[in-house]
Design goal:
The chain is of the alpha/beta class. The chain contains five helices and eight strands; from the N terminus they run E-E-E-E-E-H-H-E-E-E-H-H-H. Bound molecules: zinc ion. Zinc ion binds at residues 146, 150, 156.
Length: 185
C-alpha cells in the first residue's frame, strides 16, 4: 500500500536539521526516513521489502518529521490490522447467533473518531471505527451487535437494550470502550 501526497504540517524554517534521519522501529516494521530534494514539497510513505519507507522534504523539522512518521506508521499498522479482521464474517455469524438481520455492508471507517460504529438504517450499511482494530475480538463483537441491533430498532431505549444485553460481555465491553475513550490520541 502507499500513502502519497499527504500535505505536511507547517513548512519548517530551520535549515540545520540533518539530511539523513536514519531508521527507527515501529511495533512491527522498521521505518526508513529519506529526506528528498529541496524542491520536493510532498511527503509519501510506502512499504518496501518489509520496511516503511517515508520520504519527506528536506526542509521539514525533526519535530514535524517525528509527528509525520508516527502518524504514517499508525495508519499503516491500522490498515494492516484491519485487513486481518474479517468484519463481514463476524457480522454474519453474530447476526445468526443473535437472530438479527445481516447488514447490507460492514466496513472500517478511517474518519469516524467520535463514535465506535454507525448504522444507516435505510441502506443497512454499518461502519466501524478503525480505532477498534486494536481491541480484543469480544469488544469488537459488542460494537457489531450494537450496530446490528439498530437494523431492528433505530433508537436507543429499553427495547434496544433488551436486544444488545443478550450479549454476555456487553457490560464488560462497554467498560473497556469507556477506558479506551479516555486515552489521549
Ligand atoms: Zn447506537
Amino acid at each position: 500500500m502507499a500513502i502519497e501526497n499527504v500535505a505536511p504540517s507547517d513548512p519548517a524554517r530551520d535549515p540545520s536539521h540533518p539530511a539523513v534521519s536514519g531508521r527507527r522501529m515501529s511495533s512491527r516494521y522498521p521505518v526508513e526516513v529519506i529526506r528528498s530534494d529541496r524542491r520536493n514539497k510532498t511527503v509519501s510513505a510506502k512499504i518496501v521489502d518489509g520496511v516503511i519507507r517515508v520520504r519527506i522534504p528536506a526542509w521539514m523539522t525533526a519535530a514535524d518529521e517525528a509527528k509525520f512518521v508516527d502518524d504514517v506508521v499508525q495508519r499503516i499498522e491500522r490498515e494492516r490490522k484491519s485487513n486481518s479482521v474479517n468484519l463481514e464474517g463476524r457480522a454474519r455469524s453474530l447476526a445468526k447467533e443473535y437472530a438479527l438481520p445481516e447488514p447490507e455492508s460492514i466496513t472500517w471507517s478511517k474518519v469516524q473518531r467520535q463514535r465506535w460504529g454507525s448504522c444507516s438504517v435505510g441502506s443497512g450499511d454499518i461502519r466501524i471505527s478503525d480505532r477498534l482494530v486494536d481491541v480484543p475480538p469480544w469488544v469488537l463483537d459488542h460494537v457489531i451487535i450494537h450496530e446490528l441491533a439498530h437494523l431492528v430498532i433505530p433508537h436507543h431505549g429499553p427495547e434496544f437494550d433488551a436486544i444488545v444485553d443478550r450479549y454476555p460481555l456487553a457490560e464488560r465491553a462497554t467498560g473497556y470502550l469507556m477506558a479506551v475513550s479516555d486515552r489521549p490520541r
